[in-house]
């Protein structure tokens, strides 16, 4: 009962946060973010309550006798509620500083709160109509947020996003109505009861449609094209929410419909998910590497991480259809763990990027550099984010990737040779993405934070306000904690894993994560302790044996030329060049070099070098389709030629046809 | 009974008063008061008619739940238009585009138009219904040609010719029905719908089929089914904005009412499938054609006109699918469309009178010029394409569910595809209007003008309708549900 | 009994005449002759009403007959002639398609009507062909509207349709008063429409644009009015 | 004893480097420096003063320690002469790879920190190589791990029956190429040159001097020896001790030494007989070895050994 009070309390706070800035845009604007800060805590508590496996019918309001709002929560929703709440908390703290001198604060406040509410609604909705309404509401509000600055390009990005997500919703709607048709129920619980009545073929269609529909929102390749355009267009606190939790609602949908409702399916479902995941991971990170726009880069890396999440989920599905439920539980744990982690570090990274953009007024890495000296804290938090997302030990990304590796190895136990082959190959793909991720984040951090400032803006960048730093710091702390206490973290959502796979993965100990099945284990905590002590020891010993350290400061090695300017640094483009060349088959890159001479051919005045990569899916899949539809529409347009006689002719023709065929 | 007479006479009186006055403010007040009284009276009439149908004039007129429902739609739209006209016409007047004389004509014709629609809705005698519809054509054609430039005159000419020709076929259908009835009750036939319904199942089916075909062509053109819709985009785009709102909000519903009435007779005699399939066919064709025109469109008023064609198509599909939920959804869709589409026309009208153009690519950055209006315009554009949480989504979802219940997957998938295309078209065009750098000089003009009373009224009605749009998307009040249910009973039979 | 037989025969003759006038319209070159054709058509209609009026001397029918003669037979034709002479129009019909083609088309229309109505309604007693003929006349009227360029020929076509409609009503109900009154009412409407049309015409003269080929507003390009 | 076996790696890794250098010199018909030369170098560097660019930030100063510590951590987790070690719970071979990655990450960052072109070049090329190597290593590991039924290196090492199955042979070759690439040796990288156009690993260390350089170099030697050790554990665990018994440990220590010297020979032979490849020809080489790794996996699936 108290949980309900907590729930309504949080709801109230968000609604208040949405309404107050509408009334007093100027003086009360702070409350637009203070209320959600508290509300997030309330919802976090509520989520925990659900996670301790207390399914709860929250409320049911009827729209018509046919349709009604039904809100229900169980362990699965609890997990996602927790995610949203954690990120919401830090993002609202961050936003207090971030939105200080932003245009139309009032509207921002309203949209911010309603956006979060709609995400909660999606997670908690208990029947088809509620889900659809909250889902589309979420999409609309995010569309309005993407186009918040009302510029042309963000408008076009928003348009692409809105159209794609709408088409996705069409698929979801169809899947739902198929389920309804064959079970006769509109609410998920009822559908789950009667799920055995569904013929296998229909199940497959529902699976495909659900994957397409929710995958569009999650941003799986090749349905990802909206993501790298829409996320950067939004204000950074919103991009953080979108990348951190909104795309996770797609994952939630897949879990809810495919894993929870449809239950264990044929093996190829899981394999399909694994393949999609591997593809998204590899292509996402490949495209990320070539991006010099910081936020766009992060958006692409979100695609990669969604892929990794799907790898875990797919592995679990494969194992489940082979009847290995404990292993499938471990795989599912991997997937959910990475979902949590991605929420934490991607949220953190977007907030960091927001601060950087806020300080340098540019999204382009080539115009940054040397920021680590000007904004040390931001740089530090960004580094933590990068280390976590690169899955380096001691931080959370590592744990989930390790689990994912194990999950993929388990798939070797499955019956079919396809799974036997696919699983390790996608493991290799995962290793590839790991290495790529390291390359990417070395590039991002190295180019934009290290070295010398590359532009005027970068030179006068200032450290951001305390609230923004606090928001980031909170997330960084979480990254570390979930990194070294995997046991606790897993216990936290073991109930939802149980709900999804019917089995339980009990990991032993606090800092240790062991797997009896393969007599293998990791213990991030001991890693942490040992490494810290080694570090201290190393410093100490070097002091002793090296004696007093003598350091002279000078310029970097400049090969004898008078002085090294910032323009001589390695650029982001140059950094990625070897990789671009290596994978030019995938990038379909075109390089243009233009040399202008003072005296041909000896004295080159300027050398202009451009290297464009071809966005494969946009160019070869989406463009033709849209062109086709447009040309079709253009043909139909001639119906309305403006000639009255022709119109009369239509009437006659219609009548004649009717007379011939229908009488 | 007397209430209904009153209801019918109020618009006439208002029209006469408007015509007889020479002072603009006075005319505006008369118009507003007339509309208000009409609304109040209509409430009593409708609530009275819900319990049992009311007959009068030797059964030539009557109101049952169905006509009460359509009546309420007509009244709502008329009142909204009456309020908005004050804003729109006032601005036209201040911009020296029209003079008092034309304002007189406008309001007089407006209320005459409303009268003809009310007459159509409450008539039981199908011949009188037909005549009322024909007279709506005549009156509204004068309104369409109101600003007497080349394009609008041409539009009204096409309108009058096409509708008259198609209505001739409508009358043909009526004759045939009369003949059919005369074969049942020997000697003298009847034209009263209620009596026709009682004897419908004994009528010769072939005859009734023929009659329904002609009726479908006759009223279908008026309602705006493709491919006999061609007058509609021209008329909607050339008429003054309030008139366009009235045409799409009320008139198309009246014409569709006629089709429903005859479909009921057809169902009684031929079973639900015959008329149903025809309606579904027309609905799908209309959606398809409309989607193509919406996707590549340069003129935002024409865009809205085509979207009206699409929505008539959706209503037809709902009716055609039939079954309780199909009809329920179709009727609900009538109301939702009658709220959202006029709202869109109003907002677009604001944009038009600010930018002095109806071309989409000549409008940029409306969000900066008219913050409130264009925000609502964007939301309404999303709503009209069936996006939750707005009202249209509910009715469309109901219709889709009905399609699924009937196992009619072809209709379902075509519906979904066309709807997606239309969504893309709408969002692209309206997005390009709303966002970007404004291409006219502005400094929060809406804010500046908001002090003027007229604009307050215009903005007020826009906001109110937007709120209704949202509320109906989240909850359907009990009384509405009741009236819908009883109308469905009338259509589907007990 | 045999009286009614002979009556239906007479009706058949008259209605065939009506059809013939309609078909003739396809071949006529000059506007005046079009108007003439309409006049004959209306007189035949008048006869058709007169016959039952005489046999069953029903006052209603007398009134109807006289009204028909007055409006369709005299007023409207005169009005049309006036228009034709007043406006300095080229007195050619200028059809879009050749007379031969339009003749064949109307032939096809007639066959379609006969085919589709064969299993449909069969009116006994009054006339076996009147109904089919009337619908055929309506469709031919529409065909004329489609294929003739001039606005006035459009009106003529409209009037033919309307006559055909009248014939339908009459043949279906063998002259039931309700329908007659309806028909009369419709005539009144018709006159209003024609007047409206010509008001519009005059307005367009003011724009010096010939209405019949004005296609200002369409969807192939952006509209002029913007 | 078994808990301090990593000391072996720490202290003998320069020796291995020295041996390789000596052998190379001999192959090239030179006398070459003594096999203890690396020790002297490290000593000298520790004593030397440092020149640090004022462009650099704390990353530059912390990086050497992190690199050294992470490599030591890796050393701790590897069973060198006995599989019985309390540290083996801290992580399996996948963790090992990721611990190496820490060092790689910070080295690359430090290279960019000074803002010179050489550093950028070095780190970008290093990244390319590691991208190509990682999946290959992972596949080899999978092959052995699947056969052994565990990713725990100790467990893998205890599987005698997995010696010399076809899949293991293929995996072994792939893994050797991976090591060549990862330790920055010819044909992938030339450890002895400072020619800007060719260097990868040295380019990253260009700004370092004094004790930082010493730490970096030492870490590099350790990494090399570690990789050898992993090869030994994965492919020829023969002779490795299963418990802390003195005799067994002595035996396995001897075996270990022999294996190490053998691998050193292999390395030096490869280095002296091959020429350095152009950077953009690396993908074909490494792609080929990746194909080997896939092949090994396939054989494992098909014939199950």
What can you tell me about this protein's structure?
The complex is a heterotetramer of chains A (663), B (494), C (226) and D (305). With 663 residues, chain A is mainly alpha-helical. Chain A has helices at residues 2-23, 31-51, 75-98, 105-124, 128-146, 152-183, 188-193, 200-218, 227-233, 236-262, 267-290, 294-321, 325-360, 371-374, 376-389, 396-410, 417-449, 456-459, 466-484, 486-501, 524-546, 572-582, 584-587, 616-636, 644-662, and strands at 56-62, 68-73, 513-515, 520-522, 551-554, 590-599, 603-612. In chain A, helix 9 (227-233) packs across helix 10 (236-262) and helix 12 packs parallel to helix 16 (396-410). Chain B has 494 residues and is mainly alpha-helical. Chain B has a domain at 272-494. Chain B is globular. The mean pLDDT of chain B is 89. Helices cover 74% and strands 0% of the residues of chain C. Residues 221-226 of chain C have low confidence and may be disordered. By secondary structure, chain C is mainly alpha-helical. Chain C has helices at 2-25, 31-55, 59-86, 99-118, 130-147, 151-173, 177-206. Chain D has one domain (2-303). Chain D is globular, with a radius of gyration of 19 Å. Chains A and B meet through helix 5, helix 6, helix 24 and helix 25 of A and helix 6, helix 8, helix 11, helix 16 and helix 17 of B.
Which spans of chain A have pLDDT < 50 for at least 5 consecutive residues?
A: none
- Based on CA atoms alone, the radius of gyration of chain A comes out at 27 Å
- The portion of residues assigned to helices of chain C is over 70%
Q: Output the strand order for the largest sheet of chain A.
A: 1-2
Helix content of chain A: over 70%
Number of helices of chain C: 7
The structural class of chain A is mainly alpha
What is the 3D form of chain C? globular
Order of helices and strands of chain C: HHHHHHH
Largest sheet of chain A, if any?
2 strands, antiparallel
**Strand residue percentage of chain A:** 5-15%
Overall radius of gyration of chain C: 19 Å
- Number of helix segments of chain A? 25
End-to-end Cα distance of chain C: 68 Å
Q: Please mark out the parts of chain C with pLDDT under 50 across 5 or more consecutive residues, or reply none.
A: 221-226
